[in-house]
User: Fold these one by one.
Assistant:
Number 1:
Amino acid sequence: MKQVKKRIGYSLAGLLLALIAVRLYLPYAAANYINTTLSQSDKYDGRVGDVDLMLWRGAYSLKYVLLYKANGEVERPLFKADYVEFTLSWSQLMKGAAVGRVVVNGPEINFVDGNTSESSQSGKDENWLSIADQLFPLRIDKLAINDGKIAFYNPDTSPVIDIALHDIQLEINNLVNSDNLSDTRVATAKATGQTAEQGTISLDAKLNPATKAPTFDIDIQADNVGLVNFKNLLDTYAPFDLEAGTLTLAAEVASNEGKVKGYIKPILHNVEVFSWKGDIERDGDGLIEGSIEALSAFVTELFENQSEDQVATRIPIEGDLSSPDTETWAAFTAILKNAFVKAFQGNVEESIELERLEKVDNTAEG
């Protein structure tokens, strides 16, 4: 009997040691799998610093995630994140569905415009959704992003262009797209962020992922965006530069299965396009550049609402989502209305409503 008990004890001890060894090995195996998955792209490589498995609550986390251009000619990563956590939703599991939630802390996306394609990066034409599905092969109910950043960088200008939308907080709910898991198939998204050194932007959106063609309703509001913070960008990509001013912007865009309708309403406050000291003395602009900027300043002053010190328009958008029409004449008459009739307000009008957002097309997936 004692021999039997010893053998059982040794077997249990051996099994326990084996389980401990497997548990200790799993994070390294997972890290190797994730690094291989992140490097599937032809142009980009990826790696993760650490993997932590939390089996007791059906979760795993990644620390120091990086995606970067493989040729080594771009100094900033396309994507990086301090922490990413994938968690299985037990409440949905009880309903028979493998659904999870994703939290991303400190993510950063860097778009780079270099002199050559090798020194530039945008991440387009890459199958990132397939890679994400391999990392988290569950349906995502909720996605939360904390302290995010989207940056645009051009190292080949003088001075360099380095602007960003930062402090991004984003939450998307109800992405499961199933009547069995939710009372509605409409997903909601809310986001806020800070622009450069001054200004805020917010987004409120609804979308129906059940329709084949895009079906969504998006409201965007930007306030007190300092245009001088984008001076290097405007110097490079626009025929004039702004010496001072702020931007307020309101936009509503709705798409009903690919048919889009909406507007964009930009309002420029206290704009200064031309400055003799700034453009001629400091920047050294020549006759042509100075003349263009002086003409732009004259036109700006001509169409400015003097009481509110603002230039504004309202640009209608309508048509097919792939190539929407913008009414040039309507936009011009809106400039005149703002200047000589009544100054526009920088708020979202709530005038664009998607009639069939919660209706599912008969051909949509069930």
Number 2:
Amino acid sequence: MNEKRRTLLKAMGGSTALAALAGCISTGGDGGDGSDGSDGSGGSDGSDGSDGSTGGATGTARLWVDLSDAEDEAMSGYIDEYESESGNTINKEAPGGELDQQLETAIPAGDGPDSWIWAHDWVGRFAVREDPPFLYDASDDVDVSLDSYTETARQAAQFDGALYGLPFASETVALFYNEDMVDEPPETMEEMVSIMDEHHDPENGQYGLSYPVTDPYFVSGFIQAYGGNIFDEENREVTVDSDACKRGMDALETLFDYVPSDPGYESQIVAFADGLAPFAINGPWELGNLQGEIDNLGVTTLPTVDGNNPRSYSGIQLFYFSAMLADADQSTVDTATGLAEWYTTSEDVIQTNAEEQGYIPVLADVVGNDDLSSEVQAFAQQVDHGVPIPTHPDMDSVWTPVTEALERVFNGEQDSDAALDQAASEIREAL
């Protein structure tokens, strides 16, 4: 993610989380096989090879992206390739601010993008918007079989039987480490603390860890390590004040002492990128950037806590189909959906993104490929330990209170039990 997307991650209050899921909740289709209620396809059998071609008149579509520098450069190259093959034109643009806020303004004004890229957690939130609608059901427009993707990925793109996007990667946070500072990656929290103690010297600008510790998405794994859920989507209950979450919060507090005093995303990631910390907890979107900064970069799963794997939030990245397509020319619809089809089903694109960007594949033919790098495999293992970001619209009310609770604890203004109790109370009042 680039600076804008990082800002979104650290500012989930008032918006929703980034990113992402690999065990996405079954919210779409008939609830059984993740299909759209027909044969598992989004409108055809995909027999056309899904090369992104409209087969007729060419069109133009707007795509909003908020990516890291490495991701953005790669996306530009892929768009050039798609345009060359299809004859279509994609106007790739930055949103000019926090993506969801820009969409909230642009779509009602009729000036929104035809498609945008973000994690699946906005599907439920935007799917229930009716005045005006924010998403476009492309079930009758796409020409690829949804069976091309993993079950969780195709479910992530659907809501109440409608197809609102196409998936291309899963993601979660894992543990980066500098192999020049760490002999063996830690498997337990105790091992990690021991290594951090060796390096942590804040008076001389050295730290044990780079970690945005007041961001609920990033810290979800530790809070939920003992089996608690920040939000129980199945029962639609706020459970961040459960005993299990409070135990997880105690474990998270262990890490507070080892990070730079500014918990913001930029301050944290810079410390690791500059070689001033042996560890960083971050997502695969940083892999390309950090490989350019750290000569010997390693990635592993989050350390266990009392034998428990941290249950980090995970998500599916989608090409969303915007409500702007409802009134667009068919050539625009074909162009926007064509790019998504081409990008998400190209084994070369998916494999290259896995190698260069750390994207965890959701294209069925690539998942489990022995050629995937150790870094991608580490993220994939952490996805297996994780839980999906809830897609229910009530989740919108969770981020801000939890963020503010983390800030109070981090700043020493409130103990963690009281902070989580207050957050839970505030969330319940908002629902």
Number 3:
Amino acid sequence: MQGYQEQGYGSTSDERDFVNLNFASEYSENFPKILQALGISLVVSSYQSHALMLLRSRADTLNCSVKKFVRPMGLSVSEDRLLVSTVNRIVNFKASDMSRSSVVSGNLDDLDALATKLRDEQRDTTTFKQLRSEQISAIKQCDVLFTERSSLTTGTLNTHDIAWGDEGLWVVNSSFSCLATLSSENGFTARWKPHFISELRPEDRCHLNGMAMLDGKPRYVTTFNTKDQQDSWRTELNGTLIDVEKNEILLDGLSMPHSPRCHEGLVYFCNSGCGEVVSYNPTTKTRSVIVTLPGFTRGLTFFGDLMLVATSHVRATKAVSDIPLSASHTERDTVCGIWVINKHTGAVLSNLKFKGDVSQLYDLCIIPNTTYPEMISGDDAISAHLYDYTQEVL
């Protein structure tokens, strides 16, 4: 395991709390075969476990590589880029053929053979050398390597969904009940808020959480209610699906909705408190339940005719707890896992269930064109010797 050693504000109190977590899972026999056949892998965030999990396949076997982050939530993935939101940062990883090639070639195997300035007696301890060796071994097994290129410090925005749009990186800023864009110049630029939110204050008034992009812009969002007071959703639920362009409530009375996604003319979202995935037709203004699962649905993505859904254990919280799922299930008989669904029929084709300490998942994304990716952060040992650069004629 190559852990992401994030320090400072929001860091976990004891590294052992992470290392000793049990990330064990069981899965349908066809789960890794589906990933392999499609030429994809999955990345899933678990804020409760302070972890990002890469689900990878090889020889009909599933592998789960775990990376440490502090409260990771929203994910955004493209063919060569992977972004993750943490408690107070957005971290940007980019696929690097150059870095991977330098490791695969064996040029970095012998630390003592590197130039003197690339070595450091204080840094290069036995532990450092061991971690570096483990990371080199992991990279040699991967087919795509993502390396950390940058991060933006935002403050605690309680960032939920994130996505690239025509105007840059959009985030759901739950703390300020708004949608925002990010840049290196400031923490965030507020771009839109629901019409019932009177002012921008870090009070998480309606628990704005989900964002669906359409044609390069945010088009739909989900909230837990329509109130305008601090933490109002913790005592009163009335979930909504909102049209951003019209600033109009399309659906209300939902149960803790999450993860709206635009797909083939429909808007899909998780009616999480009911364990449902729902489709909404913006033309006919009708909705349909696609599937009901034994867990708190949150995290949704598509690949062709397949719909992939994450579920979490239902749990007692300080927020309103009288949701349909908690009335019909206990934490013990709900599932924390990932489901592969036929989007047309709602039939479950495959699933993965976490059996250890992982109980809460937030986001789920497909990593295309790779079945065995790897990630290296700026704090990992081998990162000191990885380069990704271009050059002009010299």
